Amino acid sequence: MTRRIVHGNVRGMAVEGPRAETERDARRGLRTDLLVVLGLVVLIAFGLTIYGGYGPDDWTWTGYENAQLWDWLHVLLLPITFALVAHLAGAKELGAWRHVIGLTCLGLFIALVVAGYAIPWDWTGFVGNTVWDWLELALLPLTLAILAGFHFNVRSELRAHHMFFITVFVAAIAVLAVGGYTQGWDWTGFEGNTLFDWLQLIFLPVVIPLVVIPLVLGLRQSRDSE
Questions:
Q1: Does any domain span residue 168?
Q2: What is the pLDDT averaged over residues 117-143?
Q3: What is the pTM of this model?
Q4: Is the dihedral of CA 61, 66, 69, 75 positive or negative?
């Protein structure tokens, strides 16, 4: 009798396992569909405000009529960069094409920036912005993009060539800061910025990878080990 009960329990668990997995897959698929629908609704609504704000209808309540690309980058650069890098980092089926796509997007953006200053294109709003302004705009998105590229596990995936590029970047900022403060390089925009301004600039890009991400990963690992 005991053996029969045991076999019955094992058979029931074997049936419930695939069934539970199927239910989880169904819920996951439903959540994905809902997110896609929600994303499309938001995208359509945003497109309508763009048309009304910049178009002939003159929707002044949007405030878009004076907004240049520079202003939009403050809103969109972080989510677009983070989403793109996170997607490419997880799309292993693309193979080497991941690097090609990422470098192509980066190259196109750099070309747009150069053209915005050189031609110049007034609609970009780039002219007049200094190195400091670009650091305020791009430092946090760049940090989060790098973290996404490392799958938020910097300690285990950081290599010597990564440290080389980080060192070169920090050294370049140091040279620009010295030139900006002591040599009158106005195009850097560093002169006049105080220690508090520097703390505001680097606080989140430093705290997130060195404190927040390790803390979250540690909590997740401790929860999984329980």
A1: no
A2: 92
A3: 0.76
A4: negative
